[in-house]
Design goal:
- The radius of gyration is 29 Å and the shape is globular.
- The chain is built from 29 helices and 21 strands.
- The chain is α+β, with helices and mostly antiparallel strands and about 725 residues long.
- Strands 1, 2, 3, 4, 5 and 6 form a 6-stranded mixed sheet that branches. Strands 13-15-14-16 form a 4-stranded mixed sheet, with no helix packed on it.
- Helix 22 packs across helix 23.
- Bound molecules: manganese (II) ion.
Length: about 725
């Protein structure tokens, strides 16, 4: 068990003036409060808050954070009240405990609306005091470390998934790589045990067969630098399974094609020495082309700075080298926390400004569909970025693949909302054009621009996507409302029945609408039929309802507060039109997790396609037939979807069986297998299988790529 002495020793290492006696008091206070409670491991409950406090003391946070960490579960789980904490430890500590308590209730429940609003609270809490998030992250890290004590595997998986989706990316966003790496490592082991195991084994085989001696390589690099009078510390390691998996996925490589399983960190004294060291190493070894990155001149959005390069290094091993100063190294590992160290920790402002945090809050606040935010917002720091400039030389950094839409929204929300065209390097280009490094982009705007929601698929960043959908939706709704009202009034005029719109007001709820415009829009869309509305407003007349079931449908739907027909409830997709049948496209095999669009076929059916499917491209000129769709995240349980892979393998007996075995072990069910080409050396085949999600397929592809007989695997 961590003692108060341990905590104080770690705390005073960089912060000798910290309030030691208050830390001791908090330690005793929390220990008493949790008396008798036990963790899933059987250990005394107090072990948990003590460990959480220690995690924070090790990254040298201030005493307020350490005290709040010790107390973080007392209000939730014991008889202690916030008032008690305020009285004994002050209002700062009380605020932090309060924020963390609120965050702890953040169970990602099945109700996504609740989830999104809690997510919003989490971000608000962070915006007010970053330390609340740091405590929450340390809390989650310790819970991950003790995850294996939970008896239910399902529960372990749920927590691991939540960690991968929310907490690890948040840790990365604020630059605490140490937390992120450990969380990701444990989560990957729990969620993808076969893949984790296969990668670990591959790394072992590789280091043994190539006789890799990391210590010797460090020594060689160090000697060369010293010879040129550069003082450096060199540390080497093999990359971790999660980072190897990510590399394989985003660069579409097999394990054997990876060049940088060995990573070395060179820490030097000054910024100038970083570039000198780079020059020396580039002179001494063969440089792997295309690998050099200068994150010192252009830091990552979380503040990360370093030079990256790839070399064929000592003893002909391919290595990745990261060169940075000590300060940069601190930021690389501890991000926002390192800011506490370089100033007087008790004086540093906890209000760190983060552009992405502002963006996220804005997206959520302006969204009328919080589920969509959860669906569309990625917290991840993009691994590859493109750097462009405004005509006034302002640098705009975007994820690779971004278009002028993303650029416009990155400049300013107003510019995005009103963009009508773009000049790239002085030449007029379509807004959907993907940007390249160094482009100078001039966005043309107009007050009267009209956004189509379907353009969201030409945007990469969640900010741009959310705004475009919102703008387009607002415009579209206006259009449908006008149409709906006109149709409705025409019908009544024909029957010569006097009518004013406010007669509809009592029935808004019946049709699940808030405003009159909502109802007009639903009528215009055809979601609600005119006779259906009329039969409510003028029940004395007969309105020739097309089918009696339709009436029941809306009645039952509105009484439960749902938008969908019972049949579409089973399809885990938002944005469908009630009454229309739904089919998954056979050209692109959409899976839960893919970005999807619907195509209206002859007004009767909806075909669900992946956003990047060539079929969708062909409907570009008929945006009215395209529907915005999104998967309902938590509704996808055991439904099986079909995914298709194409694979090329070395033609040897037993290989196919080995692959089939791998697939089966990963809970995917092969439903069809076809050999498409066969030569004496290789054979190609297509496999159709039942899968749970795009993520499931992705991880399976990566696993197959670790097999030595597999030359390539692609999703079709
Ligand atoms: Mn806790």
């Amino acid at each position: 068990m961590i003692t108060d002495d341990d905590l104080i020793q770690a705390l005073t290492l960089r912060n000798p003036t910290a309030n030691v006696s208050l830390v001791r008091q908090a330690y005793a206070f929390a220990q008493r409060a949790h008396e008798g409670q036990k963790r899933a491991s059987g250990a005394p409950y107090f072990e948990h808050p003590a460990e959480v406090a220690m995690i924070l003391a090790r990254i040298h946070l201030d005493s307020t954070s350490i005290i709040a960490a010790l107390l973080h579960d007392t209000v939730e789980d014991t008889s202690v009240t916030l008032e008690d904490i305020k009285k004994h430890f002050g209002s700062d500590v009380a605020f932090l405990v309060h924020s963390v308590t609120k965050l702890s209730r953040l169970q990602w429940s099945a109700e996504l609306k609740v989830q999104a609003s809690q997510f919003h609270k989490l971000l608000m809490g962070m915006a007010r005091d970053m330390r609340a998030l740091l405590i929450k992250l340390a809390d989650r890290l310790h819970n991950m470390r003790t995850l294996h004590y939970l008896p239910s595997l399902k529960k372990q998986q749920k927590i691991a998934k939540e960690t991968l989706e929310i907490y690890a990316p948040l840790a990365e966003r604020i630059g605490i790589q140490k937390f992120k790496d450990e969380m990701e490592d444990i989560a990957t082991r729990v969620l993808y045990p076969e893949l984790y195991q296969a990668i670990t084994q591959k790394v072992q085989e590789m280091t043994q067969s190539q006789k890799v001696d990391i210590e010797a390589i460090c020594q060689d690099l160090h000697t060369i630098l010293q010879h040129h009078h550069i003082q450096a510390t060199v540390i080497g390691r093999t990359k971790t399974p999660p980072s190897i998996i990510r590399k394989m996925e985003c660069k579409h490589l097999t394990f054997e094609q990876l060049t940088d399983l060995l990573a070395f960190r060179v820490v030097v004294e000054t910024r100038a020495a970083c570039y000198q060291a780079l020059g020396i190493l580039h002179g001494a070894y063969v440089v792997l082309p295309g690998r050099f990155k200068d994150y010192i001149s252009i830091p990552k959005s979380n503040g990360y700075q370093s030079l990256h390069t790839g070399l064929i290094g000592p003893s002909h091993h391919k290595i990745e080298v990261q060169i940075r100063t000590k300060d940069m190294d601190d930021i690389a590992h501890y991000g926002v926390a390192a800011h506490w160290w370089h100033k007087n920790p008790d004086q540093v402002s906890p209000h760190q400004e983060y552009a992405w945090l502002r963006d996220l809050l804005e997206i959520i606040e302006h969204s009328d569909n919080p589920e969509e935010v959860m669906e569309r917002t990625s917290l991840e720091v993009p691994s590859r970025e493109v750097h462009c400039f405004t005509p006034k030389n302002r640098l705009i950094t975007l994820p690779t693949g971004s278009t002028c839409f993303d650029f416009a929204y990155a400049v300013h929300t107003w510019v995005g909302d009103h963009c009508v065209g773009a000049k790239i390097n002085g030449r007029l280009m379509p807004l959907r054009t993907q940007l390249a490094n160094g482009d100078i982009v001039d966005i043309l705007t107009s007050e009267s621009s009209v956004m189509s929601p379907e353009w969201a698929r030409f945007a990469m960043t969640s900010h741009a996507r959310a705004r475009i959908r919102r703008m387009g939706r607002a415009h579209k709704k206006e259009h449908y409302a006008l149409l709906g009202r006109a149709l409705f009034e025409k019908k009544l005029a024909r029957k010569k029945i006097p009518f004013t719109p406010h007669q509809l007001l009592p029935y808004l709820k019946t049709f699940d609408c808030v405003t009159l415009d909502d109802l007009w829009a639903k009528i215009g869309h055809g979601f609600v039929s005119i006779p259906e509305v009329l039969s409510h407003v003028f029940p004395q007349h007969t309105w020739g309802l097309p089918r009696s079931q339709k009436k029941n449908l809306y009645r039952s739907a509105s009484s439960k507060g749902m938008h969908h027909t019972p049949s579409s409830l089973e399809i885990p997709i938002h944005g469908l039109i009630p009454g229309l049948s739904v089919r998954y496209a056979g050209c692109c095999y959409p899976l839960p997790g893919d970005r999807i669009l619907g195509i209206l076929v002859s007004g009767k059916n909806i075909t669900v396609h992946r956003e990047d499917c060539p079929t969708v491209e062909r409907y570009g000129s008929q945006p009215d037939r395209l529907l915005n769709l999104a998967w309902k995240k938590n509704k996808i349980l055991d439904t099986k979807f079909i995914g298709r892979l194409s694979t090329r393998m070395v033609n040897q007996p037993g290989n196919l069986a080995a692959i089939a075995h791998m697939i089966g072990k990963n809970r995917a069910n092969i439903v069809n297998l076809k050999i498409t080409q066969r030569t004496p050396e290789f054979f190609d085949f297509a496999i159709d299988m039942e899968l749970a999600s795009a993520e499931h397929l992705q991880k399976l592809i990566t696993l197959l790529k670790t097999h030595k007989a597999v030359c390539s695997v692609e999703r079709l």
